[in-house]
Amino acid sequence: MFLSEGLSINKAGHLLVENCDTVELAEKFGTPLYVMSENTIRKNCRLFSKSMKQNYKNSLVIFASKALNCLEICRIVNDEGLGLDVVSGGELYTAKKAGFPMDRVFFHGNNKTSDELKMALESKVGRIIVDNVFELDELDELAGKMGVKADIMFRIKPGVDAHTHDFVKTGQIDSKFGFALENGEAFEAVKYTTKLKNVNLTGLHCHIGSQIFDDEPFIAAAEVMLKLYVKIKKELNITLSDLNLGGGFGIKYIESDDPMAYDKFMNTVSNVIHDFCSVNSIDVPRILIEPGRAIVGEAGTTLYTVGAIKEIENIRNYVFVNGGMGDNPRYALYNADYSAIIANKADATADYTATIAGKCCESGDLIQEDTKIAKPEKGDILAVLSTGAYNYSMSSNYNRIPRPAMVMVNEDKARVVIKRETYDDIIKNDI
Ligand code: LLP
How far is the CA of 208 from the centre of ligand 1 (A)? Predict the structure, then answer.
């Protein structure tokens, strides 16, 4: 059976996150509960940073905080020396409150509001990744008024198919993100920028999609982007110093998922980039990558308490948990795969076919259909694995259900990093 990074089973047959017994965590902190393994997060940060350093003279790993953003995550990622990708005023605000160095913040988004652009300039974020020409003009004007020069990058659609779910594919021309390459829009925008006084274009960015398992689309995207660097150098005599290849590195949700070894991947892409630059006589730019899921995904486990069980003969067995699409909307949205395990009998044979359903008034409120777990009983603790990315960050209060707490585990210690919402939190903005 597959257990994500940092998980194991003790002699009592209980699931452990690092050295913390999840059954005890559930008892102490209540359920539903997001449990994060700090050492797994740190290990992943180091794996990416180390392999980037080994492969490039100049590089930076940026954590895509849309995967999981809260004060403590910002602190940990900062401590590990990574940059931070933010896509909204809210994510930027959290980073500021966590004391994240603003020069390592990369501000993304396809429709940043004027207030967000102002906030980014006032905060002096390292780079604003400009998505379109409307934003470029507005930013130039705003920066002019504020008497500052904004360091920017352009989001480019490299026209590469990332072999992933349609909803999380972003690199093709029919995407809402970025400047298109095929029709010359990207090149024209670079040219146009030379006329603007208050922005400084440092490089280009692309992100081709998420939960990608093979290196081919990344290599194709890197080559396509570098071809544009060569054209920009030849025709405009501009040397761009940064190249951001985005995130999208796949992780393991179920046994059959086979993500690439990130360090091997880094090496392959680096060889392609170095060869390309040398053949085309351009300098190797600073290479940036933006993993989100691969840093926090497998580090997260969600604990629920099993409630009623409805066995509908010849149809399916519903196993109800005290959470659902409010804390994890990914099955409802993408039919996302997950592995589940009964935490208080983690060593029992998983021979029961369960459809794990939440408590929302919505038939689609499922965590997984027809998945194998040990025979469940009311009161069991059900753990859903690899929930560290895009669970808390995509959670909602649908049906006015308060969001779970999050605890950070470090070896045999666990600390609350996000408090459980209360009913008073639910009505706090009601008048
Ligand atoms: N950089 C940019 C510009 C992005 O848009 C994203 C993700 C990332 C980096 C990080 O991608 P990652 O390494 O995490 O795959 N909600 C979906 C995923 C949406 C991803 C959006 N952008 C899900 O739950 O699968």
Answer: 9
Residue corresponding to tokens 């990093």: 417
Ligand 1 atom at shortest distance from the alpha carbon of 211: 15
Amino acid letter at 219?
A: I
- 73 has a pLDDT exceeding 90: yes
Q: What is the pLDDT of residue 263?
A: 87
Which residue out of 107, 207, 295, 337 has the highest number of ligand 1 atoms within 8 Å of its CB and is therefore the one to mutate? 207
Give the Cα separation of 116 and 384 in Å (integer).
35
pLDDT at 169 over 60: no
Residue ranges of the chain assigned to CATH 2.40.37.10 = 7-30+299-427
Average pLDDT (149-168) is: 79
User: What is the C-alpha to C-alpha distance for residues 160 and 149, in angstroms, rounded to an integer?
Assistant: 32
pLDDT band (50, 70, 90) for residue 89:
very high
Pick 412 or 209 by higher pLDDT. 412
In CATH, the architecture of 7-30+299-427 is Beta Barrel (2.40)
- The catalytic site residues sit at 361
pTM of the model: 0.96
- 67 CA to centre of ligand 1 in angstroms: 7
333 Cα–ligand 1 center, Å = 14
For ligand 1, atom 8: residue with the closest CA = 247
Find out if CATH 3.20.20.10 is the number for domain 38-296: yes
Q: What are phi and psi of 345, to 5 degrees?
A: -145, 60
Contact predicate 70/418, CB 8 Å = yes
Q: Does position 173 have pLDDT exceeding 70, yes or no? A: no
Residue 349 and residue 338: Cα distance in Å, rounded?
18
Return the ligand 1 atom nearest residue 209 CA: 15
Range(s) within the chain of domains with CATH label 3.20.20.10: 38-296
* Ligand 1 pocket residues where CB is under 6 Å: 64, 66-67, 85, 108, 168, 207, 210-211, 246-249, 290-294, 330, 389-390
Question: What type of residue is 30?
Answer: G
